């Protein structure tokens, strides 16, 4: 009986967490470069139940042999195993702003620098110029060039070619840093569209044969959230949560009867 409580409760917790992730995907449906999280729900290992009994053989010494008939398997619940971002290429939309940049190609990321001076990676190319003319993200993190330096410009009247080379007033200023992730699933989300990786920094995408990409100026990459599919999954998660809740309520009523009626001393 108590195992049923745990099984139903684990289902509720898993579906609640899944609903939170889907809600976050929906709220970022219009966030440039956002990669929607995909969830993986997995069952705990099953238990095989057996009844321990004895069978007596009618001999002089009354020999007993162990006999364990199988009752069946018992599921011990589910859990949300992991969340995996969907790193597929998002749709590009034109904005007309020279500071907006979009990456075309998978497994490549813009290289930026956080407040602590550590490298971070993003697909959100919604950049801007701060008061000192540095190219930054919307959160104020500095965009890096291929040498790991900040990019300073005099105005927003600059040009960026497909390889990320920045030209201002006919002069080459810098080349935007682009990193390549051989396995994007190793990246860890930090919020604000930023990713980090434990250990060594990602290698540059320039000179890497596997990295095939281009940069589009005055464009932004859209989110990979499928709003219609996300709404359907949210409804499914809610119904699953509701079903487990009803099971839990039924167990609770059964335990109440066992305690107040069956166990009553008359």
From TrEMBL:
InterPro entries, sorted: Flag_bb_rod_N, Flagellar_basal_body_rod_CS, Flagellar_FlgE/F/G, Flg_bb/hook_C_dom, FlgE/F/G-like, LlgE_F_G-like_D1
Gene Ontology cellular component terms for the protein in this record: bacterial-type flagellum basal body
Pfam families reported in the protein's UniProt record: Flg_bb_rod, Flg_bbr_C, LlgE_F_G_D1
Domain of life of the source: Bacteria
Boundaries of every Flagellar hook protein FlgE/F/G-like D1 domain copy: 109-167
GO biological process: bacterial-type flagellum-dependent swarming motility
Residue ranges occupied by any Flagellar basal-body/hook protein C-terminal domain in the UniProt entry: 216-260
Domain Flagellar basal body rod protein N-terminal positions: 5-35
Entry's localization field: Bacterial flagellum basal body
Keyword field: Bacterial flagellum, Cell projection, Cilium, Flagellum
NCBIfam families: FlgEFG_subfam
Similarity comment text for this entry: Belongs to the flagella basal body rod proteins family.
Protein name listed in UniProt: Flagellar biosynthesis protein FlgC
Originating organism: Domibacillus iocasae
Lineage: Bacteria, Bacillati, Bacillota, Bacilli, Bacillales
């Amino acid at each position: 009986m108590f195992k049923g409580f745990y099984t139903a409760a684990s289902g509720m917790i898993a579906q609640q967490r899944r609903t939170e992730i889907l809600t976050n995907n929906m709220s970022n449906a219009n966030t440039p470069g956002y990669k929607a999280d995909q969830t993986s729900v997995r069952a705990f290992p099953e238990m095989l139940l057996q009844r321990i009994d004895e069978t007596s053989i009618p001999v002089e010494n009354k020999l007993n042999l162990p006999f364990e008939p199988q009752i069946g398997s018992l599921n011990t619940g589910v859990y949300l195993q992991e969340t995996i971002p969907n790193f597929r290429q998002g749709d590009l939309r034109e904005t007309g702003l020279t500071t907006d940049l979009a990456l075309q190609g998978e497994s490549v990321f813009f290289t930026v620098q956080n407040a602590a001076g550590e490298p971070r990676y993003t697909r959100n190319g919604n950049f801007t110029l701060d008061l000192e003319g540095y190219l930054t993200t919307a959160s104020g993190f500095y965009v890096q060039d291929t040498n790991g330096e900040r990019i300073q410009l005099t105005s927003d009247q600059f040009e960026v070619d497909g390889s990320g080379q920045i030209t201002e007033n006919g002069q080459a200023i810098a080349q935007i840093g682009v990193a390549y992730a051989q396995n994007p699933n190793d990246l860890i989300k930090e919020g604000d569209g930023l990713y980090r990786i434990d250990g060594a920094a990602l290698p540059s995408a320039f000179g890497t044969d596997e990295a095939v990409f281009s940069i589009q100026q005055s464009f932004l990459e859209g989110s990979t959230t499928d709003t219609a599919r996300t709404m359907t999954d949210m409804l499914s998660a809610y119904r699953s949560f509701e079903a487990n809740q009803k099971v839990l309520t039924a167990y609770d009523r059964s335990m109440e009867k066992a305690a107040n009626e069956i166990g009553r001393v008359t």
